[in-house]
Amino acid sequence: MIRVNGSSSVVHATLRLCGLILLFSAAIVAQVPSPKSVLGFYPTDDKTIADWRQIHDYFTKLDKASNKVAVREIGKTTNGKPLIVAFISSADNIKNLDKYRQISAKLADPRAIRDEKELNDLVKNGKTIASIACSIHSTEIVASQMSMNLAYDLVTATDAETKEILENTILLLLPSSNPDGVDIVADWYRKTLGTKSEGTSPPELYHHYAGHDNNRDWFMLNLVETQAITKLFWKEWFPQLVYDVHQQGATASRFIIPPFFDPPNPRVNPSILREVGLIGYKMAADLQAKNVEGVATNSTYDTWWHGGFRSAPYYHNSIGILSEAASANLMSPVTIRREQLAGNRNTRGLSNLLEIATNYPDTWEGGVWRPADIAQIEMTASRSLLQMGAKFRERYLRNFYERGRENLSPKTGEPQAFIIPAGQPNAETVSRFLEILMAQGMEVFEMKQELYLKMEPAQRDFHEMPLGSFLVFVNQPQKNNVLSLFEKQVYPSRLLPNGDAEAPYDVAGWTLPMQMGVEAEAIYQIRNFETDRATLKKVENINQVRSVVNLSPVNTAFAKKPNPLKTNPKIGLYKGAGGSMDEGWTRLVLETFQIPFRSVSNEDMRSGNLDLDAIILPADSENTIVNGLSAERYPTEFAGGIGTAGVDNLKKFVENGGKLICFDDSCEMVMKRFSLPLRNVLAGVRRNEFYNPGSVVKLDVDTKDPLAKGLRPETAAYFSSSSAFDIAADARVKIIAKYAAKDALLSGWMLGEKLLNGKTALAEVTVGKGKIVLFAFRPQHRGQSWGTFPFIFNALEK
Ligand SMILES: [Zn+2]
């Protein structure tokens, strides 16, 4: 038991005076431990940091002490730590959690509701399910620390507003969506406190595979954390409100909240955009009432892209909120000068941080900026969200239901379903693709007999499709998720006044079947829909899919795949000291396919410890690879890159018969330092001439080449501000794939396509006894582009 401010003597007094009942209620309040009483410091104070063990410990104690809290482990993290959610609500609601979960789940699927009366009962009796998720980006550390204060505050406050929140909402608080990263940051911060490195980012990825890209995984589900939270949200609890708490750069506005910037994605229900804006304005108004300066709306972040924590909810009919507070240096305060704010002029929708605007009515003029400042803003915003959820409970529940119901009715021009035809050669990929859809709660059906289908709206005859194909109907509650993953994206052309392309917040196109190399076609009509529907069998689990595509059953979700290599090469994957996301994603792909490899460090490169058959250089700049981290800010053990010694050793490695495989940016260093007869035609090209921030593009592939074994003559590849090669006539160079000579854009946005048409996308150069394989793009983009993984496997073969 923990003593708080001598309150146990109060408890004893109560015992003697008032008997058992009063003792209980008094004891419950008195025993709820404050974060300070458990940690020994007040979280979010300057230069304090709680690691995951401490945060976990605090929430465990809170669970024990308060009947308003229930903490559940929802899975293990990549590094094996407990991933937890804290349910916070009134004691009565916490007692009946499963009842409220079921109400929310029913409202998520209007087909499960019999009639108007049942609907009215559900709306009347349900609670708003709201989730607040902290510090998925672990260097944006303050929210994870703030989460303990928020929880304590909600559990112990006795005012009417808190009572209303607890009675009407059930909060699913994720103290961190990436606990591994909390520890990586906490360890680094403690180790470097008081040194030249205090407040720097740790010199490693703060998610084992993805680093910062861990918030790029919400439709692909490569990471166990994304899988666990997706299950919690879209298979179990169906939160109507999802708030993801982030931080931005230190010299930006103090806080950014919705409404968001343009463009919106046309697949986001307009009512969601309005509701997102409403909550953002509530937050903004509440912050203004507290005289918080420097709060921006309608800027920077758009709602185009699908794969973020707060954007995935839009495709489940829910309201996703993102906030971005200006950062300190991890938990150390910073001083921001007025001139630094004046210099920050590149923000979309926010041209001058020192001038008021309708979306930024109160400027912040600079000064000391502390973790506690961030925490207070985030606490206020969290409360605003919960107040909305409480006050408009019935409205949120009914609107959530209505959006799902709207999705069940066909709209003119939309397909009826998508078919994944039987007989595709890449059965493992097809199986993973369907597993990803089902893990998000999408319904998939197996065709038990052939069907007659129209593949074009105006087609006259029906086309026979074989049994063993799979169907995904469009008219299911998460219709927009279906459409947004299957359709090609057409990003609007957005140019700045100077003619430069305006960057979207993230990528412009992501069509999943294209990225994965899975054949999928839109179906506009099924011939005898009513009778044929009875022949379809709903897919209940992944082994049902696997039995249809003739694969052996698996025991786990997202199981690893068999090693596709025929030979047994000794593989090295370069891993610099700074933490490269592209390295992490490459590692994930190799491990997913159980391909043995070892990491090659800067020291290995410098000392020539390269007894390997093949080395992969993930996409990084020449400067990052050769020079690495700066010794001015990082301890010597982490500073520096492969250096010129490493470059020389790499050359020797190739000349002596090794194979060097370069992805995208890393080609630059190798082409230059090895004097190869290739050049990137897109290097230095301005944004008004060429721009492609992330789209699916078409490659023409020489399928006779061993590097292209198993690929199709036309293959979709992922291009994300990538490269395109011009090659001087040279007998040493072999071209394996080119960007299509025309119509290369398959999904997304590309300005100035002609600069890329017909240029080389994949080449192999013979150097001495060895070979260099140069990918102009990233064939393993965020672990999503399964369609181009075979290029990597082929390149790795001996
Ligand atoms: Zn972030």
Which helices and strands appear, and what pairs or packs with what?
Layout: H1 7-18, H2 20-31, H3 35-39, H4 52-65, E1 69-76, E2 82-88, H5 91-95, H6 97-108, H7 116-125, E3 128-134, H8 142-156, H9 160-168, E4 169-174, H10 179-192, H11 224-237, E5 241-248, E6 255-256, E7 261-264, H12 270-289, E8 295-296, E9 302-303, E10 319-326, E11 334-336, H13 338-342, E12 367-369, H14 371-391, H15 393-406, E13 417-420, H16 427-439, E14 445-447, E15 451-454, E16 463-465, E17 470-473, H17 479-486, H18 512-516, E18 521-523, E19 525-526, H19 529-533, E20 536-538, H20 542-548, E21 571-574, H21 581-592, E22 598-600, H22 602-607, E23 614-617, H23 622-627, H24 643-655, E24 659-663, H25 665-673, E25 678-680, E26 695-701, E27 714-719, E28 725-727, E29 733-739, E30 745-747, E31 760-767, E32 770-775, H26 789-796
Parallel strand pairs: 3-4, 3-5, 5-10, 6-8, 7-9, 21-22, 21-23, 23-24, 24-32
Antiparallel strand pairs: 1-2, 2-4, 6-10, 11-12, 13-17, 13-18, 14-17, 14-20, 15-16, 15-19, 25-28, 26-27, 26-29, 26-30, 29-31, 31-32
Helix pairs in contact: 1-2, 4-8, 6-7, 8-14, 9-14, 12-14
How would you describe this structure to a colleague?
The chain is of the alpha/beta class. It contains 26 helices and 32 strands. The strands form 7 sheets. Strands 21, 22, 23, 24, 26, 27, 29, 30, 31 and 32 form a 10-stranded mixed beta sheet that branches. α8 crosses α14 and α12 packs across α14. The longest helix is centred in the middle third of the chain and has 21 residues. The structure holds zinc ion. Zinc ion binds next to loops.
